[in-house]
Design a protein that fits this description.
Blueprint: H1 2-22, E1 146-148, E2 152-153, E3 157-160, E4 163-165, E5 168-169, E6 174-177, E7 193-197, E8 205-206, E9 209-212, E10 218-225, E11 229-236, E12 246-253, E13 260-267, E14 274-281, E15 289-295
Parallel strand pairs: 1-4, 2-5, 3-6
Antiparallel strand pairs: 7-9, 7-15, 8-10, 10-11, 11-14, 12-15, 13-14
């Protein structure tokens, strides 16, 4: 029956052609819509003003085993591109020449998502390899195992969970590290806290000139240890400073003869957030005086 239907169709087309050749009209217009449900093979170039594929809610399929080309040109003779006047949905892969070949996709426009802050570029399982950018990278957060810099890093806040390597890292704001900060001995160190204790008698409460990396308040207390030795106790909030490194620089004493030359620092035995400082003069006797303590 299929061969018979095709044969009848061919005869019908011949009949239409015969009528067209016998007619003086330039347009062949059937009396009603022609519905053809078999495969139609055309071995010559066919030209149509408009072609409708499929129906509403039924769809349709268009097979192209070759290349889609727009043969028209502009007034300057430049070829016009193939233009799609509606949204384009591609259910398969999109590539040039072959998958993973030497002819990458070429884009000559800005890539903009339809909805902001909604879609991703790549997934956790399907990631891009390298990204090459000539301009700025503006993002809310960066999560990376390793960040390698050949120039400068500028920003207000940089939070890293991995390794940051580069030539220069310049921040206009705070740098927050969730892990340890390690440096070579030849490089400048990272300080955790600094406090200036002036010679002011009892030295009770918070000092006027101090700084801590986490914003905690350092308090100071002065007493006589053992009834004779001058002792200053610094409390660093709730921070454990018993295993940190410190340095004390004496600045003044109560008299010219009792110039403080050095000081000893001891962690207290019952409070890990406290350090005891005993300033000494040149005769080896504890003296009341000011000093600067830096904590690393």
């Amino acid at each position: 029956m299929k061969k018979l239907g095709i044969l009848m169709t061919v005869f019908g087309l011949f009949a239409l052609v015969g009528l067209a050749s016998a007619s003086t009209a330039d347009v062949l217009q059937p009396a009603s819509t022609i519905t053809y449900n078999e495969e139609l093979v055309v071995n010559a170039t066919a030209r149509f003003d408009s072609v409708y594929i499929g129906k509403q809610d039924e769809g349709g399929v268009t097979f192209f085993n070759g290349t889609i080309i727009n043969t028209t040109t502009t007034s300057a003779g430049v070829g016009n591109p193939v233009t799609f006047g509606d949204d384009v949905q591609i259910d398969g892969e999109l590539f040039r020449t072959e998958v993973g070949g030497d002819n990458p996709l070429k884009l000559a426009d800005t890539i903009r998502p339809q909805t902001t802050a909604t879609y991703d570029l790549g997934t956790e399982d399907n990631q891009f390899n390298n990204a090459y950018l000539a301009g700025e990278l503006i993002v809310a957060d960066i999560t990376a195992e390793t960040v390698t810099l050949t120039g400068a890093l500028t920003g207000t806040t940089a939070t890293l969970t991995g390794v940051l390597t580069g030539t220069t890292a310049t921040l206009s704001g705070d740098l927050t590290a969730q892990g340890d900060i390690n440096q070579d001995l030849a490089d400048n160190g990272a300080m955790k806290a600094m406090v200036y204790v002036p010679f002011d008698g009892d030295c009770t409460g918070a000092t006027s000139r101090q700084w801590t990396a986490n914003g905690s308040v350092i308090t100071c207390e002065h007493d006589l240890f053992g009834g004779a030795q001058h002792r200053y106790t610094l409390t660093f909030g709730t921070n454990d400073v018993s295993s940190r490194y410190w340095q004390v620089t004496p600045t003044s004493a109560d008299t010219d003869t009792d110039v403080v030359t050095h000081a000893y620092v001891y962690p207290t035995t019952d409070n890990t957030s406290q350090l005891e400082i005993l300033p000494y003069d040149k005769t080896g006797v504890t003296a009341q005086g000011g000093f600067i303590l830096t904590l690393y």
